[in-house]
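Morning F.,

Quick status update on the modeling queue. The single chain you submitted on Monday has been processed. Sequence for confirmation:
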Amino acid sequence: SNGATLLGHDHPAVKRALLAGVEAGVICAAETPYHEALAARLVEIIPAAERVRFSSVGSEVTLVALRIARAATGRVRFLKFDGQFHGLTEPWLFRRNDPTGDDPAVVPSSAGVPASLADDVVMIAWNDAVAFERVMAEQGGQLAAVVCEPIHFNAGCIPPAPGFLQLLRDRTREHGTILIFDEVLSGFRTALGGVQAETGVTPDLTTHAKALANGLPLSSVSGRRDLMELLAPTGGVVHSGTYSGHLLSVLAALATLEELSKPGLYDEINATGARFYGDLQAIFDRQGVPAVVQGRGARFGLYFGRREPVTTWSDALRHDHGLNQRFVQGCVERGVYFHGFTHQGPPGHAGFSLAHTEDDFAETLTVVEAVAGTMR
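Structure tokens below.
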């Protein structure tokens, strides 16, 4: 489920909420008291959130966030980081022509995307503070937004370098550029309030989806009140949709957040993750398999063919695809699934849910040990 079901499938609290929603009426054309309650809860737990707008999927809210930033600044161009994923709408479907080399040209990453839109995109490597400082000094006053995954989970797990998120915050504020944290993947995985709560760096706008409703289709864009009031009907930025803020998804989200708010839960998630990732790394080291395990909270990445930490997209692209495929295939054949069977590109992001038991982790480690033994 790409990490969307953090509570696991068939969680009783989520199931009860869904069944109650079916009885009440599957869809409502207007907001309900449940929408109001969910928005209020998100304002409580997400540092950036002063106002909230619901939609259906992550692609919609990242596009809306950029639209708000453009309306607020009167600018068009934006900066994103190479390899970070913000959905399947046109602004985001670009990449550097040669991310492992010196070619800075920005080109479409999908057929059907007009190459002319690349003129609106400034792209640099994640964690490259020198490049970011240079771009902001030269072009900061022309940029509507700087957009990032605050942890680059789309490439496995590449955390921000120390001080990097604060640098983004400081320079965007200096230039009147809107800082957008895309927490569709990172939200609720490492802390209840996301990476922004964990690091103390608050963006102007932020997006959430996936784990928000434990796998039900629900997304949100939230942020500063003055920016959010640019959305219609109070402002001129258009956003609407028949299924935006679907009632069943809203009810699932309320139940999910109640479970995730239980005291000590994230201490448990982070301790479980640290132990599991350490155990995986120990197996690869013991078996002589070149691999680096990087994880935060309930999400992680496996980088085969490497001995040093992965800090950039180009690092991730240089992993050993053949070893990765052998590992994933070997585990699947033994009943354990790791996300990331790729023939090209970076490893996929993997993870665990709160439904996984100690027996599940033990079985996984046994399988990994067996497969790693065939990879020497």
